[in-house]
Predict the structure of MFS transporter, OHS family, lactose permease.
Amino acid sequence: MSAPTTTTPATGGGSILASLKRGVLWNYGGLYFFYFAVWQIFFSFHGLWFDEKGMDGGDIGLINTVMAITALCLQPLYGYLQDRLGLKKHLFAFVVLCGAMVGPFFAFAFPPLMAWSMTGAAVVGGMFMALVLLAGVSVVEAYNERASRANDFEYGHARLFGSIAGGTITLVAGWMWANLNPDSIWWAASFCALVLGVLLFVAKVPDGAKDAQTAAGGSSGTAITKATLLRLVTDRSFIGFVILMFGTAALYDVFDQQFSIYFAQHVAHGNPEQFFSYVVTVQIFAEAAVMVVAPWFVNKIGAKRGLQLFAAILVFRVLGSALVTTTEALVAWRLLAAIEMPLMLVSVMKYITRSFDVKISATAYMLGFGVAKSLGVAVFSLPFGAAYDTIGFANAYLVMTVVIIAVTILASFLMRDDRALDAADAPEPEERERVLVEA
């Protein structure tokens, strides 16, 4: 098992009101806001946009599968590089550059690819968007979590800006889709990436963190040895964590990939696409509200129980969507995501920093969450995309429910309770201070 002496409770820097008084929280919150604006544009509207361009469910599933496979290949490398870079911004800047190219890509490169081959377009589009999204998000989350410890603020308090962005941009993009041109949403994504780049450039890193990082390893961050990596990947709790992310976090994304199409097929509304954008907006603003209290709640119940609760709500939402398809019910199922996402995000970060070696938190995050989730999306996107076309959405959702329940039960037997670790195995204040700046 990973050495408990290098873990930290990672409880963060106090209440949300205290955090909001600090400029550093607004800076890193802004990074989350504009990155997840790009994220939300794609994942809220890509199913509708590709469907409008003539892609069937299988082609859309292939895009998501290729995204996941590309991310799966990149994330181990990204984790190693980010732990080596520590608080340096090089890898984050590469993600920003790729995000700025979203508008030109979908305006000038993707249409000729679709004219040549829908399958070829799906493969190329999936590879490109992985650089921005499924692989890129791991860089953004790992860097900002590390920065939250270095700056001593609660990760969840900065992360709620991402939820606010999701609600805001969904409303704006829905209006642009209905009143301007569906293609305009991609240019909005590029604009958000450019603002993100400016905020990353001015983001501050504490001098103490820089000095400790230099003293610990020259200009680099943490050196990862084979023994350290082997200790991590053979840890029973880590294996359970990987299984849980493979079958729950991945299926959360797979479920949402084409839910907008299912929603539009059943709701009684004159403009279901725009109505869906309103529902998503409400959901994500509610998500931001839940994110305010999520760190406190997860600290109370423990990160493992937080992950189990996330999985239980996901089961309820997927099963409900299969069985009850009235307009009111579908809206309610979508709004449940406002509870799921904060629980998952905060619990993932706290479980990693409490249960495993915090000095390789980026590697643990990339492998345990990023790679496991990407592998799950790669495995599940194509068959479920095809299932939507063959057996229908409702029957596919029933199968999905069974998978989520099975992996949750298995993972729960493997993962240790982090509450005992947090209370008994946390380092002394002097050790916590050293770990805080080293990591």
Remarks:
- The chain has a mean pLDDT of 81.
- The chain has one domain: 4-438.
- The radius of gyration is 21 Å.
